[in-house]
Amino acid sequence: MDRSASASIPSSTADSPLYAFPASTFSTLLQGKPATWLYTTLAVVFSLLALEQAVYRYKKRHLPGDRWTIPIIGKFADSVSPSMEGYKKQWDSGALSAISVFNIFIVMASSNEFSRKILNSPTYAEPCLVHSAKQVLRPDNWVFLTGKDHVEYRRGLNTLFTRKALGIYTSIQETITRKHLTQWLERAAKDPSPQPIMMTARHLNIDTSLRVFCGNHIPEHAALDINDKYWAITQSLELVNFPLALPGTKVYKAIQARKVALYWLELAAEKSKLSMANGGEPECMLDEWVQTLSHPNYKGKREFSNLEMAMVLFSFLFASQDAMSSGLIYGFQHLADHPEILAKVREEQERVRQGNYEAPLTLEMMDEMPYLQAVVKESMRVKPPVTMVPYKCTKAFPISDNYTVPANSMVIPSFFNSLHDAEVYPDPERFVPERWLDPSGSANANPKNYLVFGSGPHRCIGLEYATMNMALVLATAAVMFDWEHELTPESDKVDIIATLFPKDGCRLKLTPRTYA
Ligand code: HEM
To answer: Which of 500, 501, 513, 483 is nearest to 194 (CA)?
Structure first.
C-alpha cells in the first residue's frame, strides 16, 4: 500500500512530553522574583527547548543520528523534499537510527532483520499511514483496523483475490490495456517525438483498476472524472501537509476527490447487487464479492453495505494507484535500457502466443511466462515502488538486546537495503532477471529479503493482482510496439511522490511493430 513515506507525521503519534511542563515549575519561576513577563516567557521557552533536547537524547540513547535535534521542527526540512540520497545516508548510518520531526521521535530500521521484526510484531507496532491518510480515506475505513478486527475483516476480503477471481480480472485487464496502448500508438503517430509516460501510465492503471473493481457498473464519464481528480489524492500524500483541510489546501482537494470516487463506487456496489440478484454472471470484483456474500455457505457472516464496499474498493485504489504506476513506469524504463532483456521477453511471447499476437492473454498463458515474471520481480527489486512504511509503537518495543523503542515513537521499516543486499543479490544495482530463474540461486533461497510487498499481517493483499497486471501490460506492449528511451540528465534521478518515479517521467518514443 502507498504507505510509502518517511518522516511523515501521524496524527495519533503526537507524543507531547514538552507540553507536560509541570505547572508547579512555572509558578516557582514567578515566586519572589522581580521577573517581568518577558523574563518568565524566556525562561519557559528556554526550559522547553532544553527539555526537548534532553528527551530526544534520552530516547535516542546510543543510536546513530544527530546529537541535537533542530528546535521544534527537527528534520522537517528534509522530509519536505525527500531524496533517495538523503534516505540512503540515513539507512547506511546504522541498522537502527534516530531522527525527530516536530517532536515525533522516529526510529528508522534499515536491516532485513529489524524491518521484518517491526512488520511481524503486531503486539508492539501497527501501521500508521501518512498524516493525511485518515482525512482522505475517512477514519472509518477498514485499513485503520488493528489486531483481531483487522485479521477478521481482511480474511473476508481474501475471496477477492482467489485464482478464479484473478482469471476474471485478466480478461478485463487485457481489454483495457489494449485500448490504452492503442491510444498511445495513435498519439505517437501524430507526434513521434519521445513523450513522458508518467501520466498516461497512471491513467492506464486507474482505468484498469476501476474496470476490474466495478466492470460496467461505473459509467465511462465517471471513470474519467475519477482519473482526473485522483492526482489531487496523490499530491496530498506528501510527507508533511498543512494540518487543517482548509479550502485550497492539498488535503481539502483530496477529500473532494474522494467524495466523487466514493459516490460512484457506492452506486456501482448497488448496481452489482441488483445485477447478481437478477442472475447475472460475475464480471468484476464487485460481482465476485456480491456472489460470495449471497452464497448459502456465507449465511450468518458479516454483511457489507454499499458504502462499506465502496470504501474497501477506494482503499484498494488508494493502496495501488501510485505503487502500480511506479512499478509499471520503471518496468518500461528497465526494459528500454536493456534491449537484450526485452528481446528475451519477446522470444517468450512468441513461444507462448505461437504467432497469434491478437489473442487475449489468459492466466494459464501467463503461467507459462517465467522470464516475464522474473523481469517484473527484478524491476521492483531494483526500484521498489514502496521503499518504507511508517509504523507506530503502541508500547515500548524491545527491538534488540540493547535498544527499546519508546512507546508512541514511530518506527519505519525500510526495504531498500534488504532488496539491495549484495550477498543475496550480487551486483545489486544491476537489472538481472536471470537471478530469479535459478531455483537454488541466492535470490530464491532468501525470500525473506524480498520485501517489495511488506511482510506479516499487513502484507499487501493485492500482490498477485499487481504483479500480474504489470506483467500483462509489459507483455502486451512488447508485442504491440518498440519503445526507445530518451535519456535525459534526470532519467536516473528519483522523484519521491509517495512512491518512486524517474524524475523526467520516463520519456519514450513508440513505434508500432508489424507482423507479416
Ligand atoms: C506494485 C504494486 C504494489 C506494491 C509495491 C504494494 C506494496 C504494498 C506494501 C509495501 C504494503 C504494506 C505492507 C506491510 O505493512 O507489511 C501494502 C499494503 C496494502 N496493499 Fe499493496 N502494493 C501494491 C499494489 C496493491 C494493489 C493492486 C492492491 C489492491 C488491489 C493493494 C492493496 C493493499 C492493501 C489493502 C494494503 C494494506 C493491507 C493491510 O493493512 O492489511 N496493493 N502494499
So the answer is: 483
Q: Write the CATH number for 407.
A: 1.10.630.10
Q: Which atom of ligand 1 is nearest to the CA of 157?
A: 35
Residue 172 DSSP SS3: helix
Task: List the domain range (segments joined by +) for residue 226.
Answer: 11-16+62-512
43-73, pLDDT tens digit by residue? 888 888 888 878 888 898 999 988 888 777 7
Closest C-alpha to 340, from 432, 441, 443: 432
The verdict on whether residue 460 carries a ligand-binding annotation is: yes
- Residue whose C-alpha is closest to residue 487's, from 509, 514, 455: 509
The answer to the question of residue 23 being in a domain is: no
Is 75 among the domain residues? yes
User: Is the CB of residue 391 below 6 angstroms from any atom belonging to ligand 1?
Assistant: no
**Total domains in the fold of the chain:** 1
Q: Looking at the domain assignment, is residue 372 inside a domain?
A: yes
The answer to whether position 278 is within a domain reads yes
Phi first, then psi: give them for residue 312, nearest 5 degrees.
-65, -45
Average predicted confidence (pLDDT) for the chain = 89
Distance of alpha carbon 38 from alpha carbon 268, whole angstroms: 62
465 CA distance to ligand 1 centroid (A)?
10
Q: Whose CA is nearest to atom 4 of ligand 1?
A: 323
- CB distance 57 to ligand 1 below 6 Å: no
